[in-house]
């Protein structure tokens, strides 16, 4: 073998062995999908903006209470809707959109994605999109998987259908669906909050009563700290441009 070629090969082996970024790029984890822009857990920004997100609605008891609270504080949020429920409560969905909130796709059945193939997921996305379109005349842009489960096939299926996947900040899971107590929900959210966070709540579970009580404390507290509460679209627009993007 030519000496130069051998030296190059040796260098290549050293590069792949000692540069962990190469290895990380191969791993289909959060950071891999974030780099591609196929999924978001939080948004890099220096602006004091956060996005509140509400899963599993619409719910006839809790969604109107969340909407009222958001309106009282002139805030907007994003609601990841279960398509099956959209058909049951189209008026609540219409009201949610009319108040300037954003609507997102949370599948039609809320089945775990591990038990769905690509075709089934595509069908659920389409069914939910149709239900939302019928209720509001608007199309939704983002997808949140039930229970935050994601893998490469599901992220790619969502991407192929035009949906970025929206997860939530790792330290901003309020765990409100477990009814941990109002105080705990408030503390979890406020203790770790920082610019660009995506905060997870539920307005469509049996335990959402605690969510409402917690929001009564969280909304004024976030405003007091100078935060603006925005939709996912607005949060993504607030992202700082990285060096790579501006080149
Ligand atoms: Zn859910």
From TrEMBL:
Keyword Iron appears in the UniProt entry: no
Ranges for domain NodB homology: 48-230
Signal peptide region: 1-24
Domain of life where this protein originates: Bacteria
Xref: CDD domains: CE4_NodB_like_6s_7s (cd10917)
PROSITE patterns the record matches: NODB
Cited Pfam families: Polysacc_deac_1 (PF01522)
InterPro entries, per the entry: Glyco_hydro/deAcase_b/a-brl, NODB_dom, Polysacc_deacetylase_ArnD
Signal recorded as keyword: yes
UniProt keyword list: Signal
Protein name listed in UniProt: Polysaccharide deacetylase family protein
């Amino acid at each position: 073998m030519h000496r130069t070629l051998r030296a190059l090969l040796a260098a290549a082996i050293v590069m792949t062995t000692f540069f962990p970024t190469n290895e990380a790029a191969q791993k289909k984890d959060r950071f891999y999908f974030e780099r591609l822009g196929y999924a978001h857990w939080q948004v890099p920004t220096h602006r004091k903006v956060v996005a509140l997100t509400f899963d599993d609605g619409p719910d006839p008891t809790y969604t109107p209470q969340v909407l009222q609270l958001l309106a009282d504080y002139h805030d907007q949020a994003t609601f990841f809707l279960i398509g099956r429920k959209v058909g049951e409560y189209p008026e609540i969905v219409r009201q949610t959109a009319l108040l300037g909130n954003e609507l997102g796709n949370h599948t039609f059945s809320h089945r775990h994605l591990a038990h769905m193939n690509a075709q089934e997921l595509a069908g659920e996305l389409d069914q939910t999109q149709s239900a939302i379109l019928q209720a509001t005349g608007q199309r939704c842009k983002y997808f949140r998987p039930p229970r935050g489960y994601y893998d490469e096939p599901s992220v790619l299926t969502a991407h192929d259908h035009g949906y970025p996947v929206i997860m939530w900040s790792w330290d901003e899971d309020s765990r409100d669906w477990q009814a941990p107590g109002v105080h705990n929900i408030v503390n979890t959210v406020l203790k770790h909050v920082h610019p660009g966070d995506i905060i997870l709540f539920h307005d469509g579970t049996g335990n959402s009563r605690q969510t409402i009580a917690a929001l009564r404390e969280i909304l004024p507290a976030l405003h007091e700290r100078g935060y603006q509460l925005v939709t996912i679209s607005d949060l993504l627009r607030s992202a700082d441009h990285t060096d790579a993007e501006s080149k």
